[in-house]
């Protein structure tokens, strides 16, 4: 049976975020073909996407994906013979072992009957908040982003990010790990389904991304977002400074990126380092406050796009706008104002 190489490539690229890096569960590093879909599952994330080939079984993902990306031609001819997936495209012929028995527990994913339309700024909301979640997996709900009605919130107890969406989501509240959020922000998601410990998102082109949710209650952060203190503005060139600092703040995983910000003696300093070096950027700032905090660079860039002012409290720094707030605890060594 023949299928479009472009469509097949898109399908396997889409589901690849559900692949395990190591096969702790049998077939978790494989593509599962079943019922006109290709699917992956790593015990936390499951992704399925429609395909035009009617085969059933599991094939190793790494070899299959590399092969599809390298063959020539617009079409791929795929057949199954003697437990082999036979592939032909242009002058290339190849055979990959196909496991006819599907042992990967893809049926564990729970889907409810009702899909709810997501607010148009849902992706923007989780991207804004996810950087404030903890990366320490022992900290329970603090590694998650909490979605409830119109509000999306995350906190690691040192930082709080909260975003109010344009409308309510219409389904039960849920807690989704921030590292999962970092994987789905690039998808064109339009629907959500919450059911029996799972949250699933459906894209405009028919992909379904499902993730296990945390069942604990999220913390109430509202009292911490009421900050009184001195208001000041950041310099307009801060975004350009961040572009240069990015050279040493970049990491393979976006939530591992970090920049230190210091304000003292009428100057603002940005600092970042990597195994290969470091960088410091300085500029003047019209304020007498002194403070120091750390932040994920892309988040500070987004904040600067929307708002250049902040309020310095006794122990925290608050950025806010009509639909979002971001609070950071200050480092005690420079948590002070000038006289």
Task: Offer a concise description of the structure.
The chain has 339 residues and is α+β, with helices and mostly antiparallel strands. The protein is built from 6 helices and 25 strands.
Q: What is the general shape?
A: elongated
Main sheet: strands, sense, barrel: 8 strands, antiparallel
Query: Mean pLDDT score, rounded?
Result: 91
Strand neighbour order, sheet with most strands:
5-2-3-4-16-15-14-9
* Helix content percent band: 10-25%
Unreliable parts = 333-339
Radius of gyration: 24 Å
How many beta-strand runs? Answer: 25
Written account of the structure:
- The protein has 339 residues and is α+β, with helices and mostly antiparallel strands.
- It contains 6 helices and 25 strands.
- The strands form 4 sheets. It has an 8-stranded antiparallel beta sheet. An 8-stranded antiparallel beta sheet has the order 13-10-11-12-24-23-22-17. Strands 20-19-18-21-25 form a 5-stranded antiparallel beta sheet.
- It starts with a strand and ends with a strand.
Explain the layout of strands and helices.
Elements: E1 2-4, H1 5-15, E2 30-34, E3 37-41, E4 45-50, E5 57-60, H2 61-70, E6 75-81, E7 84-89, E8 92-97, E9 116-117, H3 122-130, E10 144-148, E11 151-155, E12 159-164, E13 174-177, H4 178-184, E14 189-195, E15 198-203, E16 208-212, E17 230-233, H5 238-249, E18 259-264, E19 267-274, E20 277-284, E21 289-295, H6 297-306, E22 309-312, E23 316-320, E24 324-329, E25 336-337
Antiparallel strand pairs: 1-6, 2-3, 2-5, 3-4, 4-16, 6-7, 7-8, 9-14, 10-11, 10-13, 11-12, 12-24, 14-15, 15-16, 17-22, 18-19, 18-21, 19-20, 21-25, 22-23, 23-24
């Amino acid at each position: 049976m023949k299928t479009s190489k472009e469509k097949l490539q898109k399908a396997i690229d889409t589901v690849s975020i559900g692949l395990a890096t190591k096969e702790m569960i049998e077939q978790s590093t494989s593509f599962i073909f079943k019922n006109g879909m290709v699917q992956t599952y790593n015990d936390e994330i499951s992704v399925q996407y429609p395909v035009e080939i009617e085969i059933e079984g599991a094939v190793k993902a790494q070899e299959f994906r590399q092969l599809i990306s390298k063959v020539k031609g617009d079409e791929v001819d795929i057949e199954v013979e003697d437990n082999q997936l036979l592939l032909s495209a242009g002058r290339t012929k190849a055979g990959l072992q196909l496991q006819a028995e599907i042992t990967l527990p893809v049926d564990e994913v729970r889907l409810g009957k009702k899909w709810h339309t997501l607010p148009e700024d849902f992706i923007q909301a989780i991207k804004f908040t996810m950087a404030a979640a903890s990366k320490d997996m022992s900290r329970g709900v603090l590694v998650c982003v909490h979605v409830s009605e119109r509000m999306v919130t995350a906190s690691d107890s040192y930082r709080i990010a909260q975003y109010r969406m344009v409308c309510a989501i219409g389904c039960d509240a849920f807690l989704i790990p921030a590292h999962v959020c970092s994987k789905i922000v690039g998808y064109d998601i339009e629907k959500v389904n919450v059911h029996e410990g799972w949250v699933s998102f459906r894209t405009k082109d028919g992909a379904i991304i499902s993730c296990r949710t945390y069942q604990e209650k999220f913390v109430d952060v509202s009292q911490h977002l009421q900050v009184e203190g001195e208001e000041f503005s950041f310099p307009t060139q801060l975004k350009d400074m961040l572009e240069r600092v990015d050279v040493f703040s970049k990491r393979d995983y976006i939530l591992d990126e970090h920049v230190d910000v210091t304000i003292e003696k009428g100057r603002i300093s940005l600092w970042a380092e990597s195994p290969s070096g470091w960088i410091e950027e300085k500029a003047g700032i019209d304020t007498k406050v002194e403070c120091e905090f750390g932040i994920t660079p892309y988040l500070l860039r987004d904040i600067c796009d929307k708002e250049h002012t902040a309020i310095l409290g006794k122990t925290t720094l608050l950025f806010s706008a009509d639909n979002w707030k971001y609070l950071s605890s200050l480092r005690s060594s420079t948590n002070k104002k000038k006289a």
